[in-house]
Amino acid sequence: MNNQRLIRQFDNRTGKTYFYTEERFTDPETGETKVKRHIAGKLAEDGSIIPTGKKGRTKKNADDASYKEKYNSLLAQLRQKEEEVRFLRDIIRNAVEANDQLVSQPEKQKEMLTRLLEQK
């Protein structure tokens, strides 16, 4: 007795509805009726069935090359940003060193202030 049908089952944990193909057959050795289930897909919001499982899963047409190109592009951008950060840190370090020198030498502070005031 071979009988195949589509079974609809709701998963309470995930809140999704899955579809299975169920095949009933009689075991020739024991004479008992047995059931084999294979996942067919899950229910989409629009009511269609999205194929899942090994045989029903659709292959993604994403090119590995496009991922590699995107990865390399993002890696180059990251390196450029890291270089900019190093450059800005050097500027800050130089400014802090210059400020420390001015703070430690009050005469230079007075001299710089008088020059600035004279320019105005």
Verbal overview:
The chain is an alpha+beta fold and 120 residues long. It has a 4-stranded antiparallel β-sheet, with no helix packed on it. The model has no long low-confidence stretch (mean pLDDT 82). It is rod-shaped and about 110 Å long. It has 2 domains: 54 residues, no CATH class; 41 residues.
Concise structural overview:
The protein has 120 residues and is an alpha+beta fold. It is built from 3 helices and 4 strands; from the N terminus they run E-E-E-E-H-H-H. The mean pLDDT is 82.
Task: Please render the helix and strand layout as text.
Elements: E1 3-11, E2 16-26, E3 33-43, E4 49-51, H1 53-56, H2 64-104, H3 106-119
Antiparallel strand pairs: 1-2, 2-3, 3-4
Structural key phrases:
120 residues; alpha+beta; 2 domains; 3 helices; rod-shaped
Number of helical segments? Answer: 3
Strand count, sense and barrel status of the largest sheet are: 4 strands, antiparallel
Cα gyration radius (Å): 36 Å
Count of domain modules:
2
Poorly predicted residue ranges: none
- Average pLDDT level: 82
**Fraction of residues in helix:** 40-55%
Going across the biggest sheet, name each strand in turn.
1-2-3-4
Number of strands: 4
Q: What is the H/E order?
A: EEEEHHH
Strand content: 25-35%
